[in-house]
Every structure is written in C-alpha cells, then in structure tokens.
Amino acid sequence: RANDLDPKSHRVHTTLGKIKRSQHKLAEAESEFRAALQMRPDDLDVRLQLAEILVETGNLKKAVSELKTAAETKPENVQIRVALANALLKNGDLDQAREQAEYAVTLNPRNFDAQLQLGLIFNAQGATREAIDQYRKTIPLSPPNEIRAHLQLADALWKTSQKAAARSTLQQALKLVPDSQKARKLLKNFDG
To answer: What is the pTM of this model?
Structure first.
C-alpha cells in the first residue's frame, strides 16, 4: 500500500489524471496520464483517457497516434476502435474512420457506441440515407436515458424533408428524457 502513495507510482499518476480531468484541467491531466504511461505503457485505460483528452483539446493527430498504438496492442477492443473512429472523423479522415467503426460493429454488432459512430460517419460522408438507416438500427441498442441516436436521426430526417418523422422521433426522445434541452431546442427549431 505504501507504494500506492509514492508520487512516482503509476496509480498516483492515474488517479491524479482522473481528478484533473474531472476538474477540466486538461493539460495537467494529460501530464499525469503521460507519466502513468511512462511507467506502464501497456495500460490501455490510461492511454484511452489520454487520447480522449487529446481529442477534446484538438490534438487529433496525437490522439490518433495514441489510439492506433492501443489498437495494435488490443485489436479486438471495441471501445478503442470507436474512440479511434471518432478521432479520425474529427480529423477529417472519413474513410479510415468508417473502416474503424465498421470493424467495431463487426466485433460487437450490439454495441451502441460503435453503431452510433458509424451513423455519424455516414452523415459526415454525405450519405444521409445510410445514416438514417444506421440511426434506426442504433436506437434499439440505446441504454436507458440515452437519446443521442434519436437526436441524430431527427436531424437527418429533417434534412431529407421527412419533417413529421423528425418531430415524432424527437417526441419519442422527450418521452425517454423529458428534460432534454437538446431535444426541446431541436423541436423548437423544427417548429419555428
């Protein structure tokens, strides 16, 4: 246990990284996670958290690099593949992003995040019809109180002039999460 309190301990750096991240002190969190990885480069949870911070701060190339390293270490990890697809999407590498998301879906077809990510990529590629189909596949996989797929579907339906279906989708989302400001704002925009 004394080792856990050593400032040079992997666990201390990991814990401090999580605390700094929760405080939105992202540069400090990044530093702590990097220190933890110096001690245990195989810690995929820490590498994933570091990559998420890099995405949040716009360091997309570094995030992609960290996630590719993680994916090489653990190629069957859906969470890493989804995070890599997200970083690639944000970096504008749509074909690679799609490849990663499709692979994540192949690894676990019932994974909500993988399915949603694939829909987001279809949308970014301008394949709105495919995105709509993908969001429709994703909604039944949604965890309780999770309406991101509903919101994306409503937006895509609206853009393709399927206004009644878009409104209906938002109303379904509001039944699940009645206080969702995002759903209310979209509905207001659609009605306004």
So the answer is: 0.86
